[in-house]
């Protein structure tokens, strides 16, 4: 606030207050459950009806035509939803404007706090607040977050640590549930607790609800502390995979608490049910994922709806799993993971960006709403504060988490290559945050569960634990991470070397494992890759990209990123350095790449052209226009002759100029090399006015007003002959074959 | 692959081997039949599908030898034991075979077939060609190799020496990646 001054802050507060008032006003006017809402506008309509009815009323008076009417009920529902979401996002925005608080307090805490405020305000005006009911949460708020997490899951880290994650998720959650449930039952027997009526099964149910680590809370807190990938994936993976366990336990105990007796057969069925729930969820997800990948193979003509396929197939996977009471979260994750490599090979670049940003956007909104609702529901919900119960719940939660993590790590470390240190264990234990899933499940407990008191007591305890973990653990984890000097996430640029060497090492390790006869990690991964390459990719990836090795696609992506960076920064560069660069470019004869180029040049008189200022500007403008519209064309360059790849870390302006010059040179060389079979034919989408000259080096180098355009034109002509037998491969752009739009952009006027 | 077990007695210099490599022959008993002397064809049969199979095979054989005996075999495999974190560089003991440095050196030697201490562009191209096979064009291979050397080559000698190789892999968890679990 010291940074901005009092002005914007007060304005923001004012606007917040205003919104609060409007919201309260809307809640006051809302009578959703009772249906009294049609009383007020009724007289209005009735009166109008009377007016129009000709012969009934003798004393009709002519009402003036209503210029301004109030008809709130027409838009009530969407209006309120939008207002809530808008409020939530404004809050989120506000937090980031205050510089000091957002560093100390994680965003989730602030949002809960805001929710508490709003809940308090609404309660003060004695109205019924919108509570986060379970359907809203599980069907609308949770899926975007999980899909976002699953789609961008780091697969390599996840599969490498799969064993550890599974052990934590399954065994850890079971241990937590039974420990807490059992201990709370013991606590309930204490005289002072006054909760002796709570049965063992209810306690176990409570234990199973509270034991699960929550993915939403973990994401919210861990996002901000940037710890290393291993720890992040351990805690996060655990929070995702324990959903199966939670679902099974919850339904199990709920069923049992209605039944009178529990037999061994029931317990056995419970175990079977666990496998059915988890594997069934994954199966459903895989099926939808394959369907989604297959669909994306044919979307090359309707690029605009590509993102929708990804979203809808994933959502359907979630809902289908929920139909059968399978684990919806695991289904969603499986769908995203399976779909992603194939979909990304098929869709355009714009679609990819759209998917990424939509997922991030939705998950952000969902998360914000969840935390705010959590705050509101806290104020609202049925409470029954039982000191002993709550305190002991908290204590046992922490205790069981620590014991579970330490004990399991001891066992796991016998099987791991890279052991988990004490620091790692501490962070994993400390990162076991509970969140909104626990609350929603608690809310779902039936009213007749013992008595209303029990439910209230459970809910209070759940909320207390959630608050404690999110506030206390969430706020302190960042300083603790600093204090313990836990390894942070390394921000690294993708390096072609790393990729090459990693693949090389994969092959090496597979070979070694084959020699030893040891069917280890690499062996199965290699088998999976082979299977993928020979069968699956042919079906699910369109066109020639199906046989593209991973290294090539990686390389192409890097080239494209570099080209984009080039354009973005080059547009801000100044002209006077052109001459220096143009002079520098030919004056580097010792450059190995140039000698290589000369070796490969078919005719020796190709020389690096001296770029004039006008041509430079021309090239720059056209490149900018082109690169923004058809990235695919640039990709076609990257498949071929990039002689020199000056991939340098500190991009100075001069180097950018040089690279621009280089790119121009490459473009010209591209024209002279006969197009290979894998050439992407989207060059044909480049339409040019035919009056441009064909570009050759040997002729005059003087005035070339639109050289680059001519370059592209010739490439167009050259590619024309082959355009028929080439199918469009992965399109990095274009909403569709809209020739007119493309052509108009390229006209260098 | 035989599953016959061999004991420490049958292996010449068994104790010394144990000290050097940390591998107990009983544990690697599955490989016991290699005592008889392994030829390259035997290994190649296992690695027929592996793109860099012949390089791996070549790493086991000393230059000029036709067979590999058990100690040499174990010495090579010792590189793939999981790293122990508590090994300190005290200068007295030779560096254990499974330290990060030695693992990287082993991998480096697989690239560097002519053993001149550098990975030249041609050697890199060969590796890429083997790994990527027939699906890519020569130009693509050239450009990838070019880019790789550009990135890694810090002293501008157009080749990747061991230090540059190590530097380019500093973010990769070699300890985890180059370890086979059962070789404890």
TrEMBL record, chain A:
Which membrane topology term applies here? Multi-pass membrane protein
An example Pfam family from this entry, by short name, is: NEXCaM_BD
Q: Which GO terms describe its cellular component?
A: basolateral plasma membrane
Record family assignment: Belongs to the monovalent cation:proton antiporter 1 (CPA1) transporter (TC 2.A.36) family.
Ranges where the Cation/H+ exchanger transmembrane domain occurs = 85-482
Residues in domain Sodium/hydrogen exchanger regulatory region? 597-680
Superkingdom of the organism of origin:
Eukaryota
Output compositional bias ranges, type Basic and acidic residues. Answer: 37-54, 715-727
| Residues annotated as transmembrane | 81-98, 105-125, 137-153, 165-187, 199-221, 268-291, 303-320, 355-375, 387-413, 425-445, 457-481
Tell me the Gene Ontology biological-process terms attached to this UniProt entry. Answer: regulation of intracellular pH; sodium ion import across plasma membrane
* GO terms of molecular function: potassium:proton antiporter activity; sodium:proton antiporter activity
Give the keywords, sorted: Antiport, Cell membrane, Glycoprotein, Ion transport, Membrane, Phosphoprotein, Signal, Sodium, Sodium transport, Transmembrane, Transmembrane helix, Transport
Q: Where does the record place it?
A: Basolateral cell membrane
User: Which InterPro entries does the UniProt entry name for this protein?
Assistant: Cation/H_exchanger_CPA1, Cation/H_exchanger_TM, NaH_exchanger, NHE-1-like, NHE_CaM-bd
Q: Kindly indicate where the leader peptide sits in this chain.
A: 1-29
- Its protein name is Sodium/hydrogen exchanger
Q: Where is this region: Disordered?
A: 31-59, 699-749
From TrEMBL, chain B:
Among Pfam families, the record links this protein to: EF-hand_7
Biological processes, Gene Ontology terms: protein transport
Say if the entry is tagged with keyword Metal-binding.
yes
Q: Which GO terms describe its molecular function?
A: calcium ion binding
Q: Where in the cell is it found?
A: Cell membrane; Cytoplasm; Nucleus
This chain belongs to which protein, by name?
EF-hand domain-containing protein
Query: Which family, according to UniProt?
Result: Belongs to the calcineurin regulatory subunit family. CHP subfamily.
> Which Gene3D superfamilies does the protein's record reference?
EF-hand (1.10.238.10)
